[in-house]
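Fold it.
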Amino acid sequence: MKIAVLPGDGIGPEIVAEAVKVLHALDLSFELETAPVGGAAYAALGHPLPESTLKLAQESDAILFGAVGDWKYDTLDRHLRPEQAILGLRKNLGLFANFRPAICYEQLVNASSLKPELVAGLDILIIRELTGDIYFGQPRGRRIAADGHFPGAEEAFDTMRYSRPEIERIAHVAFQAARKRSKRVTSVDKANVLETFQFWKDVVTEVSLQYPDVTLDHMYVDNAAMQLVKAPKKFDVIVTGNMFGDILSDEASMLTGSIGMLPSASLNANNKGLYEPSHGSAPDIAGKGIANPLATILSAAMMLRFSLNQLDSAQRIENAVSKVLAQGLRTADIYSEGTTRVSTIEMGDAVVKALR
């Protein structure tokens, strides 16, 4: 099993180091190879996704990814900014299906910003289409407006678009995932305003006919954002487009107590995947030893389950994380009175100890 390890920027190297430590504690044989990505790659090699890094990712069975981004690169041309690395990996590897589970551990119920009764037992799976929508649509750019409210003024534009095959394949992923859960799918759109999402709604409805055992409902994205806060446990599987999924999954992360607890998997049609925490690079806390590595460690568990077919080892990691939380160990983002504050490294060490 060959794993490409791409730590990236900010807290990326710190949290990835702890996930690698956990992987080494398992009774498995891995070939791990590290490569630069994001701002670190630009600083070293002049591009956020060097050919050597992309080649490694293509040749590996799975990718363990940290985070990219740093304010000092914000003045670069867009194609050289760190964030282009993750977009390039998604596009080149065909990573169209993003799985973002939002699970509230029993031990973290009081860390959520919502009342305990609203989040206790929470288990939502958000499935985000990852290679289409306004993030990748063409044409895009800047120009002088020929019409609109201010003709002759400078304007910027992006294109929101989805094709039938793109919607069909992500819908199949959602319905198949729901069959392994509570058999409910909520498709989130903005069909009342956007033609793109009326088409999305129509296609998802057509695909649902192939899954008569799964209940489908539709919800506008603004209502979905409200319902995630009002009654989150009413959701099971949420499927939505790239931009809406980006926003809703970050909102859902706070239901769990911290975005530092939210892992993710981005898969292609062959279940090859890139695994990363849902949070960003957080350059403001980099090097301070206070970042939460649990989302990255749980992402490694997802990697074992989805891409490497090591189900028992994945469950061992998840059990170890639960055990550590039950011991009252907390990084700064999930700390509360009566618990024990630990550093990034100490949290990783605790998970390793729980594994053994």
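The chain has a mean pLDDT of 95.
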